[in-house]
Structure to design on (374 residues):
């Protein structure tokens, strides 16, 4: 599978729910429609919930990559509401 | 006066005798935990005028207005009725049906709990039985409403199916599933049906709707959370339609009515009469058969 190209990245491994989602959302707000954000998050609650929250906000989730270090990277394309 | 007071009748009408002689705490009917602003205004006015200016929130989403005087009871009922507020019930009968906000409001909800609570309430509320009987409706596996505490608990869930051509193999569902039921493979996502608890998180999280969910009801029987504590047990798999749900609920209530001793909670009836016998009744009802007992 080809690597996903992205326009910006944010690390939310320093936050706990619900600030994980808040931090990711703030980063996404700085992007233009159609740009891709790479969000690095911890295993467990963030990886269970953040992808779904992004979907519920109307953005397009592209891929969840296992970094094999206890973190995951979620690629999200910004969709304006 | 006291000699003529019919406490059982008052209890049936939601009036709970207080420690303080001549005073009653009036329990109100709050279906599925919702009240209109108009209802609340009326309750507030009655509490000010006839009570002591406060209400008590009960553990089952109800409101009680304490310190109602015996002689004001009829007047209080009439004033409440004008604001669309009805008394609840106490004693050996079907109690207020409780519900979380459910699918109409909550992103996690798999079923419309409020609609269902209203329907259950219309069908069963106040029905005379050998002992109290509680219904609770919760929208999903998060179980905010604690379905298994109830004599009959209903939990929303989803029967899920995988649409492989639509799947982009993003991996989100595998992590969203908390039961370890999903595995990514060369051939798309594999579902271990044994592990699936019908939570619907794969459906809710899938960015391309490759997981389809059909809403349904997971029913538990015989829960207790009072003097004795028992978790309600599930007997049949998730029920996909309301008709079957009501047939199963009818069968459970009838079993209780026919078999319970006065003052015996559902759980103890099941233990005394035999849980296998009850299982047969419920399985038959779920399969569409009329009860043979």
């Amino acid at each position: 599978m080809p690597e996903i190209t992205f326009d910006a990245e944010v690390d939310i491994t320093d936050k706990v729910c619900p600030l994980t989602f808040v931090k990711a959302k703030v980063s996404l707000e700085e992007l233009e429609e159609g740009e891709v954000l790479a969000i690095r998050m911890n295993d467990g609650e963030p990886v269970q919930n953040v992808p779904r929250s992004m979907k519920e906000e109307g953005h397009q989730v592209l891929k969840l990559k296992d970094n094999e270090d206890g973190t995951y990277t979620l690629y999200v394309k910004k969709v304006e509401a | 006066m006291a000699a003529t007071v019919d406490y059982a009748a008052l209890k049936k009408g939601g009036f709970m005798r207080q420690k303080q002689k001549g005073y009653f705490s009036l329990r109100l009917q709050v279906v599925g935990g919702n009240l209109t602003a108009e209802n609340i205004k009326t309750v507030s006015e009655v509490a000010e005028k006839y009570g002591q200016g406060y209400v008590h929130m009960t553990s089952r989403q109800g409101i009680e207005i304490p310190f109602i005087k015996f002689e004001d009871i009829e007047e209080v009922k009439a004033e409440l009725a004008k604001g669309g507020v009805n008394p609840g019930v106490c004693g050996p009968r079907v109690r207020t049906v409780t519900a979380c906000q459910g699918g109409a409001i909550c992103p996690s909800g798999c079923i419309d709990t409020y609609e269902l609570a209203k329907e259950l309430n219309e069908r069963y509320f106040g029905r005379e039985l050998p002992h109290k009987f509680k219904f609770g409706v919760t929208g999903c596996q998060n179980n905010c409403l604690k379905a298994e505490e109830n004599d009959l608990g209903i939990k929303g869930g989803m029967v899920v199916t995988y649409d492989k051509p639509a799947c982009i193999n993003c991996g989100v569902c595998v992590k969203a599933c908390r039961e370890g039921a999903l595995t990514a493979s060369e051939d798309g996502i594999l579902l271990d049906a044994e592990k699936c608890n019908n939570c619907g998180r794969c459906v809710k999280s899938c960015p391309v709707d490759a997981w389809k969910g059909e809403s349904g009801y997971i029913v538990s029987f015989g829960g207790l959370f009072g003097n004795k504590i028992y978790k309600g047990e599930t007997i049949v798999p998730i029920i996909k339609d309301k008709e079957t749900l009501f047939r199963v609920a009818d069968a459970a209530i009838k079993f209780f009515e026919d078999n319970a001793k006065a003052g015996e909670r559902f759980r103890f009836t099941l233990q005394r009469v035999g849980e296998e016998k009850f299982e047969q009744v419920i399985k038959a009802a779920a399969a569409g058969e009329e009860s043979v007992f």
Remarks:
- Chain B touches chain A at residues 107, 168-172, 175-176, 178, 201, 204-207 (CB under 8 Å).
- The mean pLDDT of chain B is 95.
- The radius of gyration of chain B is 22 Å.
- Chain B has two domains: 2-82, 98-286.
